[in-house]
Amino acid sequence: MTIPRLEIRNIKRHFDGRAVVDDVSLKVMPGQVTCLLGPSGCGKSTTLRIIAGVDMQDSGEIYVDGKLICDTIFRVPPEARSIGLMFQDFALFPHLTVSENVAFGLTGPKKARHARVNELLERVGLTHFADSHPHQLSGGEQQRVALVRALAPRPSIMLMDEPFSGLDDRLRDDIRDETLAVLKDEGTAVLLVTHEPGEAMRMADEIALMRDGQIVQQGAPYNVYNAPKDREAAAFFSDVNVITGIVEGALTDTPFGQFLAPGVPDNTKVDIIFRPQHIKIDFDRGGRGPEPTPSDGVAAKATVERARFMGRESLVEFKMDFDGTLLKATVPSVFLPQVGTPLWLTVRRDRCFVFKH
Ligand SMILES: Nc1ncnc2c1ncn2[C@@H]1O[C@H](COP(=O)(O)OP(=O)(O)O)[C@@H](O)[C@H]1O
Ligand SMILES: [Mg+2]
Fold first, then answer.
1. Same domain membership, residue 133 and residue 199
2. What is the pLDDT of residue 289?
3. What's the average model confidence in pLDDT over 154-183?
4. Which residues cross the membrane (predicted)?
5. Which of 87, 199, 231, 331 is at 20 to 30 A from 79, Cα to Cα?
6. Which of the listed residues 20, 49, 212 should we mutate to test ligand 1's pocket, taking the one with most ligand atoms within 8 A of CB?
7. Residue 44: CB within 6 Å of ligand 1?
8. Is residue 288's pLDDT more than 60?
9. 331 with 202, same domain?
10. 122 and 79: one domain?
11. What tens digit of pLDDT does each residue of 8-23 get?
12. Is the CB of 213 under 6 A from ligand 1?
């Protein structure tokens, strides 16, 4: 079995009697990017600061390559942890040149330091800026310098706290991709903190979803998105639609047909959750065509309440005939129905989640 590059076990941290990090355990495997994803204030930065050694846990242990580096008695100082840091406000040293910035944390023979700096600047296409000062660079370029400065000493682990949030939108995706490529080339294990699900899915091999100081679900982006553990986990990644039903014989009847509710006792109220892209509009039948296939369940009638053109897709809000529930659908933008249009809808039943209410 591979030993995790970083492992934290049962980390707890209280502020003013409140558990801000509440029994968090997490592994980051060599060469992998793990994203700690959760809403603002859920304890992500505190967790990272504890791992970096700039804050101290109340209980729990931290291991690097299987070796204890910190518990409540023993503590390796931050600078000896082989951890690279990159935070949102990655301040470069303004009075040092780009290459001096990158060389800052390096020790050893001058020639080797020089070679390492050159290698990294070349890797991120900034060789021509080696003798420039940070203020002469764009935001994106400064970001790349900060990245290679953190990577220069070959840390075992990179901790990154919302490192892209200072960049403007149009740059961000390219910089994320480039950063990921550099991190993968270097083979560094990465723990990246973000509150943006899109960023986590783009960057992560593994997502750890955090809420109120706890990790509620962990897995590959595909799994966390497609098999959320509860309603909140589903809703963290996109708008969701909710209809309710009552269970009878492990099934619940709804205007969209029956849904499986395995293991749920009779007479329990359940929420059926689905994302806007999993509503299908019954175009062909004009609402009255042939029977839907069993996988589509039953078509339910609705009226267009609102329709907005969003470029790549249209966002359509429907008022359901059965009880006035409003459901959101995203459909290809070639389709933009008039408000008031009656239409029949089905849902992708294989993409619905049933949770106890
Ligand atoms: N030094 C501190 N003293 C008191 N409360 C703190 C301190 N640091 C963080 N907190 C609180 O802990 C909670 C989690 O903060 P943080 O870890 O920064 O969350 P996140 O990074 O997920 O947004 C917040 O409510 C914050 O106000
Ligand atoms: Mg934070």
1. yes
2. 45
3. 90
4. none
5. 199
6. 20
7. yes
8. no
9. no
10. yes
11. 999 999 999 999 999 9
12. no
Choosing from 213, 235, 257, the residue where a domain stops is: 235
Looking at all shown ligands, the one closest to residue 21's CA atom is: 1
**Out of 91-95, 114-118, 212-216, 238-242, least confident range:** 91-95
Look at residue 1 and tell me if it is in a domain: no
Reduced 3-state DSSP string for 255-268 = CCEEEECCCCCCCC
287: phi > 0 → left, psi -120 to 50 → alpha, else beta; which? left
What is the span of the domain harbouring residue 341? Answer: 238-356
Q: List Cα–Cα distances, 94 to 86, 99, 168, in angstroms.
A: 17, 12, 21
| Cα 191 to Cα 125: distance, rounded to the nearest angstrom | 25
Ligand 2 mean position, distance from CA 52 (Å): 14
Whether residue 190 is found in the same domain as residue 293? no
Which residue, by CA, sits nearest to atom 9 of ligand 1? 46
In this structure, the answer to whether residues 300 and 229 fall within a common structural domain is no
Whether residue 20 has its Cβ less than 6 Å from ligand 1: yes
**φ/ψ (deg, to 5) at 275:** -85, 155
Residue nearest atom 10 of ligand 1, based on CA coordinates: 15
Say yes or no to pLDDT of 286 above 70.
Answer: no
Q: What is the pLDDT of residue 295?
A: 60
Structure tokens at 232: 């909140």
Stated as kind and residue range, the H or E segment containing 103 is helix 98-103
For residue 279, is pLDDT > 60? yes
